[in-house]
Design brief:
Elements: E1 9-10, E2 20-29, E3 32-42, E4 47-51, H1 58-65, E5 73-78, E6 81-83, H2 88-93, E7 96-99, H3 111-115, H4 126-129, H5 136-149, H6 167-181, E8 185-189, H7 197-212, E9 217-220, H8 224-230, E10 233-238, E11 241-246, H9 253-261
Parallel strand pairs: 1-11, 4-9, 4-10, 7-8, 8-9
Antiparallel strand pairs: 2-3, 2-5, 5-6, 10-11
Length: 266
């Protein structure tokens, strides 16, 4: 394997226009360089994994993609058109949904209420406009349809409080919420962390269903077997830079770890 730092290995990309593209992003924190000219592309129906050691810039990259950080330099494009996110709400309004490790679900609320958390619908007519009554029946019906569309067999009853669900079921609720409103891209931060084998497999199946529905998914994970099971391409971060973009066909897990840690270049 051989490459220069300025020209990291780049696996072949799908044809067409990327749904989301980052060009040469730079983000600094005083004298600390979080991102140093990082580029990234994700295409329709693609699962792009992002891997890297602690401090590699994974979280900084995701925050720049989702409006939590504003890059010092570089450009973001959505469907080929330049965009500028001034905050997470801008990214969400553009169709980019993120599920973070802490899930941000409300345990006391039921599944349907969590799916519509922050996007609650009012009843039509005077009951909604004047008395601000929630359309609970409509939201539950749509939540059932969304769960069925995603094939989440573990969430049969959308009226169950989330606090009564297992860790895997809670993750499914968070992913379902992202999928329901993430019309462009769904970003998952360590989606199988702290889950058992069975629950992890359910989450991985859910990622594959999103791919089948042509929804681009970006997955940040330390779990190499899971990365190689679901990813089409793998973006490797090292010391704030992109070290390589590889595929499960072009490189092994050992190769990926070696690139990630600097033990090898591509």
């Amino acid at each position: 394997m051989s490459a220069t730092d300025t020209q990291p290995f780049e696996a072949p990309t799908p044809e067409g226009v990327p749904v989301l593209e980052a060009k040469r992003l730079v983000k600094t924190f005083g004298r600390v360089v979080g991102l140093d000219g990082v580029s990234l592309k994700v295409f329709p129906g693609e699962v792009l994994a992002i891997i890297g050691d602690n401090g590699a810039g994974k979280s900084t990259l995701i925050k720049c993609l989702t409006g939590a950080y504003i890059p010092d330099e570089g450009q973001l494009l959505l469907d080929g058109a330049p965009v500028q996110f001034r905050g997470p709400q801008d990214a969400r309004s553009a169709g980019i949904e993120t599920v973070y490790q802490n899930l941000a679900v409300s345990p006391a609320l039921d599944v349907a209420s969590n799916l519509y958390l922050g996007r609650e619908r009012r009843k039509p007519g005077i009951m909604g406009s004047l008395f601000r009554a929630l359309d609970t029946k409509g939201m539950r019906a749509d939540a059932r349809a969304e769960v069925q569309r995603l094939g989440i067999s573990t969430l049969q009853d959308v009226t169950v409080p989330v606090e009564n669900l297992s860790g895997g079921q809670r993750q499914a609720v968070a992913v379902a919420r992202a999928a329901a409103f993430g019309s462009k891209v769904v970003i998952l931060d360590e989606p199988t962390a702290a889950l058992g084998v069975r629950e992890s497999n359910q989450v991985l199946e859910l990622i594959q269903r999103l791919r089948e529905q042509r929804v681009p998914v970006i997955v940040i994970s330390h779990n190499m077997p899971h990365v190689f099971q679901v990813a089409d391409r793998i973006h490797v971060q090292r010391l704030g830079k992109k070290a390589a973009t590889i595929t499960p066909d072009s490189h092994s897990m050992t190769d990926a770890v070696a690139i990630m840690t600097g033990a090898a270049t591509v």
